[in-house]
Design brief:
310 residues, alpha/beta, Rossmann fold, 9-stranded mixed sheet, globular
Length: 310
């Protein structure tokens, strides 16, 4: 069983700093290439867009991996690593782009203590899983493949792009009793536009990138938007987002809440995009929601996070 000693070391700074030298070079490269050869700029932008960087997870996750039951699922020929702890109703946790499953490690012990079986995974081309490229539909397919392997999933908790993957999996038939969405985007175009800003892509390249995505997956990027999918869903959702999130701004949460039939929202202060996964109050509220999603309202008694609304 995971030990509480492994719970507190991962606090990443979400603040925006000046771009590192390598990124400044890439921005200059794309800016110049788009003027000379928009076609080549588009091809390279597509490759970058689907090729996540593998981060270096904290060393303190090794005991958690050893304590887990590890199994694998195949998604588009890629071997995906899944970890499982405990017994009981299943709670599946879905990381975001360039993340890894054990970013949710602070959730594990509290969920076990509440009688849940806890699952997480490294998506294709992330962490311990195979592949060099991935995409949103592949994340969603991984969720569905895990459901087929373990049976009914009680609840899914997504972070960042993991939220978009979860809503897409729900549209495609995933059945759960509760959905937790932390720091997720309301639209995929938001993510594409942020990517374009980071890499200094001109409008012509952005437009071609969206056309390529639509061609590859048979639907426009707008059709993948969680806010577009949400009106079709009846499952209760709990949306948590930080006002100081510089990677996915909190207006995404407001937009998603407005489009979801049965959702409530909690806006925190000062936790950013990643640290929010390590705040005890956030974890406690998410578990309280999962245990009783019908009629759930966030608890603002702590009074330290500013606006908390239903």
């Amino acid at each position: 069983m995971p030990s509480g000693k492994n719970k507190v070391s991962f606090y990443q700074n979400d603040s925006k700093k000046s771009a590192p030298f390598q990124l400044r070079l890439i921005r200059s490269f794309f800016g110049a290439l788009a003027k000379v050869s928009p076609g080549w700029a588009h091809k390279i932008a597509v490759k970058f867009f689907f090729s996540p960087r593998r981060g270096k997870p904290s060393a303190d996750i090794r005991p958690l991996k050893k304590s887990a039951h590890t199994f694998y699922v195949k998604v588009n020929g890629k071997k995906v690593t899944v970890w499982s702890w405990g017994n009981g109703p299943v709670v599946l946790m879905v990381h975001g782009w360039e993340g890894y499953g054990l970013q949710f490690r602070n959730f594990i012990d509290p969920l076990l203590e509440n009688g849940y079986r806890v699952l997480t995974f490294d998506a294709p081309a992330h962490g311990d899983s195979g592949g060099s490229q991935s995409n949103l539909p592949e994340f969603a397919e991984t969720i569905r493949r895990i459901e087929k392997t373990v049976g009914h999933i009680e609840a899914v908790i997504g972070h960042s792009m993991g939220c978009a993957a979860t809503t897409l999996a729900l549209e495609e038939g995933l059945k759960v009793n509760a959905v937790g969405l932390i720091a997720g985007p309301a639209t995929i175009d938001y993510i594409i536009n942020e990517y374009a800003t980071i890499f200094n892509l001109p409008e012509t390249v952005i437009g071609r990138l969206k056309q390529t995505i639509a061609s590859l997956f048979g639907r426009p990027t707008t059709a993948f938007a969680p806010a577009a999918i949400a009106p079709k869903l009846s499952v209760p959702a709990f949306i948590i987002h930080d006002r100081n999130d510089v990677m996915v701004n909190y207006e995404n949460a407001e937009k998603l809440r407005a489009s979801w039939k049965d959702a409530r929202i909690m806006l925190t202060e000062g936790l950013g995009h990643k640290r929010i996964l390590f705040e005890n109050f956030v974890i406690d509220e998410m578990i309280r929601f999962i245990k009783q999603p019908t009629g759930f309202q966030p608890d603002n008694l702590a009074g330290r996070f500013g606006k908390v609304s239903a």
